[in-house]
Amino acid sequence: MEPISFEGTPKTPTVKFDAGTGIIEIKGRSIPENSIEFYKPLVDWLEEYAKGPLEKTTVNIQLEYFNTSSSKCILDVFKKLEAIHKAKNEVIINWHYEEDDEDMLEAGEDYESIIRVPFKMIEIVE
Q: Which CATH number does the domain housing residue 55 bear?
C-alpha cells in the first residue's frame, strides 16, 4: 500500500499515513474549504488498510484547531480505526493538546466517549 503524505498549509493539516510502520499522523490546523473532499482519500486509505492492518496501529493526532465540518470527517477517520480495533488489532490513539487548550482536550475526550478505541491524552508542555 502506498503511504499518504502531504505537507500542511494554513488551512489543512500535515498528514502521514504509512501502512509499513502502522503509524498515522494528522497535525496542524484543519479548516479546509471542503472537509469531505480533503478527508475522503484518508478514509478510503484506512478502508484499504483495514483489510490487512499491522498488529499495532499508532495514531498521532496533534491539531491546534479544527472547524465543525472537519470534526465530522475526523470522526469518520476514527470510525475506520474502530473497525480495525474491533477486528482484534491493537489501535492506540495519541491525542496531543497544548497545555492550556481545554477545548482541544475536551474534543479528544468527546471522541474517546464515542469511539471504542483506547485514547491517550498527551499534554504538550512548552
A: 3.30.750.24
Q: Note whether 95 and 61 are within 8 A (CB).
A: yes
- Which residue from 24, 23, 29, 39 is spatially nearest to 8, judged by alpha carbons? 29
Q: The pTM is what?
A: 0.95
E strand or H helix that includes residue 124: strand 119-124
All residue ranges of the chain with pLDDT < 50 are none
Structural domain harbouring 86? 4-124
Total domains in the fold of the chain? 1
